Amino acid sequence: MSSAAQSENNKKWLVLATIGLSVFMAMIDSSIVNLTLPTFAREMGVSFAAVQWIVLSYMLTVTTLMLSVGRLADIVGKRPMFVVGLAIFTVASGMCAIEVSLAWLIGWRVVQGVGASVVMALGPAILTEVFPPAERGKALGMIGTTVSAGIVLGPTLGGFILGSLGWGWIFLVNVPLGIIGCIVGARTLPAPVETRGQKFDIAGGVTMFGALLSLLLALTLGQRMGFGAPHILGLFAASVVLGAAFVKIENSVKQPLVQLPLFNNTIFSVNLVSSFLSFIATAGTLILMPFFLQQVLHYGAERTGLLLSVMPIVIGVVAPIAGTLSDKYGVRPITVAGLGVLLLGYLAVSGLTAQSTTLDYILRFLPVGLGLGLFQSPNNSAIMGSVPREHLGIASGLLAVSRTLGQTSGVAIIGALWSARVATHGGTAEGSAAPEAQVSGLHETALVLAGLVAVALLLTLRGTRPRREEIAATT
């Protein structure tokens, strides 16, 4: 290998490290802050409902901006967008650590979410540019490991920092890492490709922002207020109206925010829907298991936390292996195998009982983590490899939205379904229902999750083709 080729090879791994570090910070920030909400409420003298907006403001900002960020990156270039986004995230992290008021913290969490939306939306797009098709799955799989590490380490690291240093350091740890990421990213990320005459679709961006915000608020607030409440129904209606307006705008403007013809590509659209369904199932699982472990099996918080880490640990181990396999054998067989294993996993979870042991729980959840690990990185590779190079930013943004919207929908829909089934079996609220009622509700809900995965599996089998060159095509 020549020195120039060796230099380029080294550079792409530095790019992967920069993206991985940035995504890790964004992911760990979400899970760490959840742990500190009781501390915020106590030290600031506010209600728990109020401090929840520390989390919600970040999540809403990230999800509503990712599509616009992806399109802007296609226009102005991914390197300047990514570095500026990471810099915004870093500065906002430092400002969040300053104890002024709850409004101050929520405001800077919004700014932090702006930076995080850039990092989370552009990571896959940049890696797709830097890594050849034969290594794309492996690179995306490593990012999957980084995401899993952030989920697993967040509560543990957060507990240590909170107990030893105080809550401000939960945000301050991002600052030196963010500075390093900005410096390395500015030097190693690929230079932007010159684009002329490109304009940002302001009307499309505003309507999509409003549609996503209305939907996310309805799904989030509806869990507390009830999905039949007038305000919640109004938010759902606003989301539908704005969504329809967005489609009309995109069909009429010359340079739309989202190229709707992209969805005519069955590989792109089917794998995007499959991703959305898998994240609904994943989020539904994570919201239900703490209730089962603590209220049915009567495990403590520490033991519960360790068992909840089984799935992300398995995903983190399997994801880069699955990515490498997809590079070698094509994405379709690996994604199909992953969804098949995931389906078996949820069927196994539906067999949990009040007499289940720790080993029984682990054995039933291993295939869930294995299936998700096999599915996610090859599926992401298929999505990113099915679009032209000039649309990588918006494709990456759509992929990120499918993840966050699927997670939010999963928590709301699956949580409401489980509550309803528990109430049907126990005649009382889920928190005070008999263990038998909670187990019955879990059985039925797990079967619904298996049904969602079965739909994703059928879509993947019927809607994708085994020809590897079609999936990996990129220009």
Number of helices: 17
Question: What low-confidence regions span 5 or more consecutive residues with pLDDT below 50?
Answer: 466-475
CATH homologous superfamily classification of the largest domain: MFS general substrate transporter like domains
Q: Kindly state the percentage of residues in helix.
A: over 70%
Overall CATH class of the largest domain: Mainly Alpha
Radius of gyration: 22 Å
- At the fold tier of CATH, the topology name of the largest domain is Growth Hormone, Chain: A
Strand content: under 5%
Name the CATH architecture of the largest domain. Answer: Up-down Bundle
Number of domains: 3
Q: Quick check: average pLDDT? A: 82
Secondary-structure-derived class? mainly alpha
First-last Cα distance: 24 Å
Instruction: Give a quick account of the main beta sheet: strands, pairing sense, barrel closure.
Output: none
Spatial shape: globular
Question: What is the number of E strands?
Answer: 0
Give a quick summary of the entry.
It is built from 17 helices and no strands. The chain is an all-alpha fold and 475 residues long. α1 (3-44) packs parallel to α5 (133-164), α1 packs antiparallel against α7 and α8 (202-225) runs parallel beside α15.
Describe the protein's architecture and organization.
- By secondary structure, this protein is mostly helical.
- The model is unreliable at 466-475 (pLDDT under 50).
- The protein has 17 helices and no strands.
- The protein has helices spanning 3-44, 48-76, 78-96, 102-130, 133-164, 168-172, 174-188, 202-225, 230-252, 266-296, 301-308, 310-329, 331-349, 358-385, 392-426, 435-463, 468-472.
- Helix 10 (266-296) packs parallel to helix 15 (392-426) and helix 13 runs antiparallel to helix 14.
